[in-house]
Amino acid sequence: MESKLDQLKDMTDVVADTGDIEAIRRYSPRDATTNPSLLLKAAAMPQYQPLLGKAKQWAATLGGSNREQLTNCTDRFAVDVGAEILGIVPGRISTEVDARLSFNTSASIERAKKLIGMYEAAGFTRERILIKLAATWEGIAAARQLEREGINCNLTLLFSFGQAAACADAGVYLVSPFVGRILDWYKANTDIDIKDASDDPGVESVTRIYNYYKQHNYSTVVMGASFRNSGEIEALAGCDRLTISPALLEELSNDSTALVRRLSPDTADSADARTQPDEAAFRFDLNEDAMATEKLAEGIRNFVADQAKLEELIGSQ
Predict the structure, then answer these.
(1) Domain tally, the chain
(2) Which of 224, 253, 268, 310 could form a cystine bridge with 5, CB 3.0-4.6 A?
(3) Structural domain of 280
(4) What CATH number did the domain enclosing 300 receive?
(5) Residue 15 — φ and ψ, nearest 5°?
(6) What integer is the mean pLDDT of 130-149?
(7) What is the pTM assigned to this prediction?
C-alpha cells in the first residue's frame, strides 16, 4: 500500500511548511510557505549564506538609512529563498509581509506590491506567489484590495470562525487556520482530554471553516496549518491543502496503513449562515474569543521577534 503521505496527496494538496530546500526536494510538495521564523532558521544554514550575502550587497547598493537597508535586505532574502523554492515546487510560494505592519492596511499593501515586484523582476509571475498577511481586520482589508489588483493572498494567524468568515467575504485566495496553536491554548487553559483527533479543538475549527466555505460556495482555499501530531493531519484528510513540517512529512511517508478521507465538498454541511461581518462585529466577536485574541496577538509578537532576530543576525555579519 502507498504511504499515508502519498494517499494524502491523492485527496489534498500538500504544502511544505519549511524553508529547507533539501526537505522540499525530498517530499515533493505542491507548494511551500515561509515566515519570519523559518527565514531565521534558513539564515543560519550554510547553504543559504550566499543568498544572505547577495541580499546584503543588494540592499547596500540601494542605500538609505540602516533601518531601510535592513528592511530591503530581509525582503530580498525572503524573495531569493522563495525563488529557490519555486525552482523545485510546481505551485506557489507564500512570502510574508513584515508582521510589524499587521495593523497598517496601506503599509501592508505597499510592502506586498514591493515583494511581488521583486519576484516579477526575478522572472516569476504573480500567479506563483501568495502574499502572507496576519488575519487582523487591517490585514484582511489589505488583502481585499490586493485581490482586486490580481495579487493573491494567504491570511495567516487565523484562529477563529469570525476571522475565516471575514476572509471569505473579502475574496481572499487562501486562509491558513492554525490547528496546533489552538490545541496549545486549550491544554494550557482548560482541562481538555482528547480521546480522538476529531475532537481536537484545532481540527474542529478547520472542519467548521471548510464546511462553511463549501456550503456557501466560497472559492477561498482552506489550508490547515501548525500541526502538533500526525493525528490532526489525518483527521483533516481531504481538506483543500495542508501545510506540514518536515518531521511530520517524514512520519506520514513511513506509515503505509490506510488513510480515510474526512473532508469533502460533496459531504460538506454547515449550520452557519452566510455572513458579511463589518469592522465592529469582527472586533467584538474576536474580543469575545479569548483563545483567538490571545493566540493572534502572541503569533504577531513572535513573528516580530523573529524578524528582529533576523535583522540582528544580518547586522552583525
Answers:
(1) 1
(2) 253
(3) 4-316
(4) 3.20.20.70
(5) -120, 135
(6) 98
(7) 0.95
Q: Look up cell 467584538; give the residue.
A: 284
Q: What is the 3-state secondary structure (H, E, C) of 174-235?
A: EEEEECHHHHHHHHHHCCCCCCCHHHCHHHHHHHHHHHHHHHCCCCCEEEEECCCCHHHHHH
Compute the distance between CA of residue 123 and CA of residue 246 in angstroms, rounded to an integer. 28
CA distances, 85 to each of 33, 82, 250 (Å): 9, 5, 19
Q: Please state, in angstroms and rounded to a whole number, the distance separating the CA atoms of residues 137 and 141.
A: 6
Helix, strand, coil shares of the chain as percentages rounded to 5?
A: 55, 10, 30
210 CB-near residues (< 8 Å, 6+ apart): 222, 236, 239, 240, 263, 268
Residue 20 above 90 pLDDT? Answer: no
| Average pLDDT, rounded, for the chain | 95
Q: What is the pLDDT of residue 34?
A: 86
Averaged pLDDT, 110-124: 98
By annotation, the residues acting in catalysis are: 132
Burial of residue 276 (CB within 10 Å: 0-12, 13-18, 19+) is: exposed
Question: pLDDT (tens digit, 9 = 90+) per residue, 233-258?
Answer: 999 999 999 999 999 999 999 999 99
Confidence grade of residue 1 (pLDDT, cut at 50, 70, 90): confident
